[in-house]
Amino acid sequence: MKLKSLLAVFSFLALWTQAISCADQKKEEPKSETSAVIPAKLQEKINLDSIQTVKLSEKAKRKTEEWIMYIALNSEMERLENYTISDVINNSETIENVVDSLSVTVPPVFETNAVNARILSLKTHVNLLNENTKRIKPNPGEIKDLSAKLKLDFNNLNIQLNEVFIIENSPVE
């Protein structure tokens, strides 16, 4: 009698353990599907083709040729157009370093409130981008949005660099 009850308890425990382990496997399956989807999203190209880059005027172009950090930022913005989300994650710190250096190397001719405001806007968005890329699970949609904002900020900076010379050439009334 004792042997039968011991065998029944043992059988019950074995069946119960097997049921729990099967339930755990079912829970793990969706995780593997979601983890496969995230890397696929990270390989998506950031589509910034709809945002046309603002060209510098001849005077602004000549002055920025001496501004090494602007040249570096311009290069990063050109490369950003061909990046995937994964590329942005890998290069966000470089972009942040360039923007930080840009703010401390502004040539005297461009030391205006409007130019400094555009650089501050660039710094804000690049900091948000870098913060997002350092997360355990970066948000691909947010990275795309912030990349677009960076390009818009760069365009606004170019507009302000051009306006420095428009304002300089306009007659005083």
From TrEMBL:
Residues 1-23 form the signal peptide. Keywords: Signal. This is Lipoprotein.
